[in-house]
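Protein Record: Sequence and Backbone Structure Tokens
======================================================
Tokens: labelled as protein backbone structure tokens, with as many entries as the chain has residues.
Question of interest: how does this chain fold, as expressed in backbone structure tokens?

___
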Amino acid sequence: MAMGISAVLMVMWAKIRQAVIMSYIASLLRKYIQPYGAALLSSERVYHALHTLNGLPRQICRVTPVVEVFLDRTDPYSQLVAQVLPELQRRFDIKLKVWEVSSRADEMFPEAGLWQRNASHDALSLARLYGLESPSSDNMPHFFSSLEEGEVRRRQLGHYLSAMFWFEGEWFWGLDRLDHLERRLLAIACQKNTQEDVVFNRTCQKTFLGQPGDVVDPSRPLKFYFSMRSPYSYLALERVVVMSRHYHIPLDIRPVLPMMMRGVPVPRQKKMYIFHDTCREARKLGVPYGRVADPLGAGVENCYALFDYAQSFGKGVELLLACARAVNAAGVHSDTEGGLKRIVAQAGLDWESARLSLKKEGWRQWAEQHRRELYDLGLWGVPSFSYGCGQSCWGQDRLWLVERWLLGGK
């Protein structure tokens, strides 16, 4: 009897050990294959091939292109989108289908209260930028579908935000991504005027408004709240470094832990939307992106520990740039010694002395302090910026606003 039980236990142990080994092998394969899969998904060739594929039903049936719009009456960004719908209809030969939505899943909005307060302030800035009326529910159209239908349709198409446009397999958020939709419509030649061009591109300028040194107070630092895992932080880092050097202002980068390392889950649906959105934003800005090696966990911790070391040599910016480019564009794993050696070398630092900093934990204190500062500003996510007294904003596509601060509101 005892031998029978022993044999059963041995078989069970063998199966458990096999399952653990297989799980470990699978995780390794996912880790090292991930950058190549991400590079394929993010390629421009695949992006345009999907456009062609998703446009085939329209071409075969020879029907008017349909743009679906999802608006929430209480959402300031939706209130801005509603104002530009007539202009889109005037400029392009399209059919607009407007759906009403309202629900916001908690897992998609971990700080819903802060998000709403920031949205009201931010949307007002956007309204001024484009010469629109202040966000108001009075601006909302009266030709909505019913709320229930809108919720079902949005869920069917696989999204969670309002102020969204959907066109042939692709999502576009608010005024900030309307330029991508305009390019799609121009590409299929449905504009009513042959001289038509992209109009909603004021938040994505590539050049600076002022001359080098043309700032009110060059001694005042620009605070930049950054996360090594955030692809939007990476896009912002590449551009804000250039901006700070252009205007000769000090850049105070304040890294924070990624949300998932703070116990805040990020659903897969949201992660995939962010990935695809970052791909097209990076292409537009000319920033390499796509061969991603997720640094979540030890990869982030290593980069932050090295940041302290790099700062002592005045190379903190160089180190973060090297880390961000490595994990977002080169498929380098920052949780491996080989990957870290490459990153440290690209930052112009010595590996043998840099590696000693990896065991230090002091960065945890300042990462938490930076998070608290962010919340004190009424913000929660990255990238975020703060300059002077009372000037703060969230988003890599708000550098136009940051530049206005630097130029004294010009």
